[in-house]
Specification:
By secondary structure, the chain is α/β, with parallel strands linked by helices. It has 3 domains: 3-138 and 306-326, NAD(P)-binding Rossmann-like Domain (Rossmann fold), CATH 3.40.50.720; 147-302, Dihydrodipicolinate Reductase, domain 2; 344-427, 2-Layer Sandwich (Alpha-Beta Plaits). Helix content is 36%, strand content 27%. It has helices at 13-24, 26-33, 64-68, 88-99, 109-121, 141-148, 163-175, 179-188, 197-200, 203-217, 236-245, 306-325, 363-373, 402-413; strands spanning 2-9, 35-43, 60-61, 75-78, 103-106, 128-130, 154-160, 227-228, 247-258, 261-272, 284-291, 295-302, 340-341, 348-357, 378-383, 391-397, 400-401, 418-427. The strands form 2 sheets. Strands 7, 8, 9, 10, 11, 12, 13, 14, 15, 16, 17 and 18 form a 12-stranded mixed beta sheet that branches. Strands 3-2-1-4-5-6 form a 6-stranded parallel beta sheet, with helices on both faces. Bound molecules: L-homoserine. L-homoserine is lined by residues 162-164, 199, 204, 303-304.
């Protein structure tokens, strides 16, 4: 049987998963491909380090150039990540390999988001760029957009595509704990990074959404186009009110067509308990897609981790080997640059607003009057406490434009009976 050699750059979480899968399942994979996939070289920083997988010493190397430019290695898997937040090394290795006509696989969303156009244009005939693992880890969402839904006009995507934040929000609502307490617990258990900003502030989800929306809508969407708000201001009290009103709170990544524009946003969102995304708990990810032909569709699974992400990368290795044997490239990705990204202040939503106020007659009326002045219509309101100072009052609005809502919030904040606006959460209708 023929052997297809693979060069693996990096043996961290993702690299170890790929090594394990391609070795543990090598017979089945060889039968499917019609050739044996062999990881011939593995680039590491320190060959003496203890690892989760056992790789023969002779396979390990510290010579990146030797792997990338080896003519006997037609498939390169980039799994070095972004050491020190720097994408340059990964980009440079990938560019050299692509220019040498190789098939290059990555699960590195930052590299793709920052250098995607340059990388795509470096693909030569006979080579290819694959990145199933870059969005939602083990969930095969990239292929679904590129292949299974290719006949659709994708209308919208709503995703829970960050496991850390979903884990935190799930535990807060299940255990009645505050954000800081759950975050500390998640860090102690290794579910959250010691520097959690990339996850809790929504950066990770914004990178993934930019990639997904680019594939789904066929436009070159940059991470800067995505409006972003994280979960660190969500209080347990908000989750309790949300539950009472019939909603779960999730960090949603949303991409939607609206005429010739696209809306792109990552923010905490209240979704009705009956929506399939509301039951996605813990560290799981899910992507809810609406296509003009297929209707509604949801993909669910583990969005990160050694084996789930390894599964996506291994599938790309198999795809690349198939293409190599048939001497074809994967279909080229055509992207138009001409899309209008809707500015946030034009977007519309329903809103949940919790205001901390002095509890005395006329306060509700004063706040309601600010909403009215700004053309925001109130759907319902709740006040529970009595006599505390301050007390929470909660408003849920009808659909309103963000610009009008910000105008209303400015007016409310300036009222002398208002201590502060504790939370504003967008509400997705069913
Ligand atoms: N940190 C991410 C998450 C996984 O929590 O989902 C890597 O993108």
């Amino acid at each position: 049987m023929d052997v297809v050699k693979i060069g693996l750059l990096g043996l961290g979480n993702v690299g170890s998963g790929v090594w394990k899968i391609l070795n543990d399942n090598s017979d089945e994979i060889a039968t499917k491909v019609g050739a044996r996939l062999e990881i011939a070289r593995v680039l590491v920083h320190n060959p003496d380090k203890q690892r989760r997988v056992s790789v023969p010493r002779g396979v390990l190397t510290t010579d990146a150039e030797g792997v990338v430019s080896d003519p006997d290695i037609p498939i390169i898997v980039e799994a070095i990540g972004c050491p020190g937040q720097d994408t340059t090394l990964a980009r440079d290795y990938m560019l050299s390999a692509l220019r040498a006509g190789k098939h290059v696989i990555t699960a590195n969303k930052e590299v793709l988001a920052r250098h995607g156009r340059e990388l795509r244009s470096a693909v030569t005939d006979g080579g290819g760029l694959y990145y199933e693992g870059a969005v939602a880890g083990g969930i095969p969402v990239v292929k679904v957009f590129k292949e299974a839904l290719a006949g659709n006009r994708v209308l919208s995507i709503m995703g829970i595509i960050n496991g850390t934040t979903n884990y935190i929000l799930t535990r807060m609502s299940q255990e009645g704990s505050d954000f800081e307490e759950v975050l500390r617990m998640a860090q102690a258990l290794g579910y959250a990074e010691q520097d959690p900003a990339s996850d809790v502030d929504g950066h990770d989800a914004a990178y993934k959404l930019a990639l997904l929306a680019s594939i789904a809508f066929g436009h070159d969407i940059q991470v800067e186009d995505v409006f972003r708000e994280g979960i660190s201001r969500i209080k347990l009290e908000d989750l309790c009110y949300a539950a009472e009103l019939g909603y779960a709170v999730k960090l949603l990544a949303i991409a939607r067509r609206d005429g010739d524009s696209v809306e792109l946003a990552v923010h905490p969102t209240m979704i009705p308990h009956g929506h399939p995304l509301a039951s996605v708990g813990g560290a799981f990810n899910a992507v809810f897609i609406r296509g003009d032909a297929v209707g509604d569709l949801m993909l669910y699974g583990m969005g990160a981790g050694m084996m789930p992400t390894g599964s996506a990368v291994a599938a790309d290795c198999i795809d690349a080997a198939h293409n190599l044997i048939r001497r074809v490239s994967p279909p080229r990705e055509v992207r138009s640059n001409h899309v209008r990204v809707k500015p946030m202040d034009e977007m519309e939503s329903r809103y949940y607003v919790r205001v901390l106020v002095v509890d005395r007659p006329g306060v509700m009326a004063a706040i309601a009057s600010e909403f009215g002045r700004a053309q925001v219509s109130i759907e319902s309101l709740i006040q529970k406490g009595r006599g505390q100072d301050p007390v929470s009052v909660v408003f849920v609005t009808h659909r309103a434009c963000e610009r009008h809502m910000q105008d209303a919030l400015r007016g409310i904040r300036a009222l002398d009976v208002v201590h502060s606006i504790a939370s504003v959460i967008r509400v997705e209708a069913d």
